[in-house]
Amino acid sequence: MTNVEVMRVEGRAEMCRQGYRIICCLLAVLLAPNSFQAMAVALLPGQADGHSPTGEFIAGVPVIDALDAVALPAGKHKFYFRAGIPKGNQPFDIPILVVRGAHPGKQLMITAALHGDELNGIAVIHKLFAEVDPEKLSGTLIAVPGVNQTGLTDKRREFRSGRRMPLTDLNRIFPGQQDGRDSAKRFVGALWHRVLKNNADLAVDIHTQTTGLSYPLFVFADFRSKDAKAMAFTLMPDLIKIDRGQKGSLETTYMMTRIPAVTFEVGAPGKFEAALVSRAVAGLRNLMRQQKMLEGPVLPPSDKLYVGKKHFNVLAKEAGIAHIRVKLLDTVAKGQLIATTSDAFGRETGRYYAPHSGRILSLATSPLCEKGSTLVRILH
Q: Number of helices and strands (H, E) in the chain?
C-alpha cells in the first residue's frame, strides 16, 4: 500500500470516528433535549470540561474514563465512569453525581455501596444531591452512589469480576492496581486514580452493617487526625469508635494520602431506612456547613453521643434460636444478661452476659443463629 493510499485509509477512519461522535451527540439530544453539555462532550472530546469522555452514552448520560470535577461549570452533572471491561463481560460503568458550586470551596467526596448489600448510602446520596443548590454551594460535592455494581446486581457484599473469578471485598484492596491480572484490583485502581484520589479534600465512605446484623448511626474515625475527629462529631452520629482503620479500606487509603476521611455506618443492609437516611443527610449537611460549603450554623452532636475505643463480639456457642435481651444503643453493665439461646423445642441452651460495660453497637437481626455467629456487639 502506498503512502497516498495509507493517508486515504486513515482519512476515512477519522471521518468514521467523527461521524460516530456526531451520531452519539444526536442520540443524546433526542434522549435528553436540554442536554447541550452532552453535545459538547460528543463533539469535543478531550476538552477542559471536567472529564475525559469516551464518546459513548448510556440513556443520555455521558460515559467518561476520568473526572476533574473542579473544571466543570457550576451546576449539577451526571456521568458514568468506565472502570474497565472484564474479558467477555459488560463494562463496569459506575454512576457519578457532581454538584459544582457557584462559589469556590472544598471538594467533598461521598461514596456508597462498596459492599453490594449495603444500600442506605445510595438513598443518602440521592437525597443530598436533590437538596443541594449549586447557587448556594461553595466548592464541589462529588458522589458515587453505587460503587460495587456486580454486588448490587447479585445482592451480595462482594465484587464479582467474572463468572469463574473469586469474590472480592473491595474495601480490603484499595488503592488497587492500574495494571496486572487481577481484574478486581484493576477496577479499584481505575476508580481510585481517575476519580476518587484527585477529586477530594475530605471524604465520607457510607456503609451499613453486613447481612444478618444492624447498626445505628455510627462512625469509624482515626482520632490521630484532628480533621477526621472533627468530621466524626460533626456528622452527629449515635456512636463513634476511635479506630486506626484497616489496611486496604477506602477510608484508610484516603488517610494515608493525608485526605481526612471517615467511615459512616448507616443502619442495616438490604433496605432503605428512611429515618436513618434523613439523619445521615442532616449530618452531611452539617459537615458541609462546618467546611464552609453551605451557609448556616454548625449543630453540636447529641449529648447522648457515646465514644468508645474497642468493641467486643458476643458469639453464639452453638447453633439454635437466639433471644436478644437488649436493644441498639442500650447501656449495659458488665455481667448483665444480654441474650439466651434455645433449641428447636424451646429449651434454653445458653446464657450470654456482657463481658464489658458499654453501649450496644450491633445486634443479630434473625433469631436463627449458627455456631460462631455474632449475637451482640458492645462498644466500650
A: 8, 20
CA distances in angstroms from 47 to 2, 96, 148, listed in the order given: 34, 19, 29
Q: DSSP strand E in 235-357: where?
A: 239-242, 261-266, 306-308, 311-315, 320-324, 331-332, 337-342, 348-353
Contact status, residue 124 vs residue 281, Cβ threshold 8 Å: yes
Q: In sequence order, what E strands does 17-137 have?
A: 51-58, 61-67, 75-82, 93-100, 103-112
Examine the pLDDT at 142 and tell me if it is beyond 50. Answer: yes
The H or E element that residue 21 is part of is: helix 3-31
Domains observed in the chain:
83-290 (3.40.630.10), 310-379 (2.40.50.100)
Of the chain, the percentage scoring pLDDT greater than 70 comes to 85
Place of cell 445505628: 216
Amino acid at the residue 148: N
For residue range 209-232, what is the model confidence (pLDDT) as tens digits?
999 999 999 999 999 999 999 999
pLDDT at 189 over 70: yes
Backbone angles phi, psi at 316, to 5 degrees: -70, 130
Q: What is the pLDDT of residue 141?
A: 98
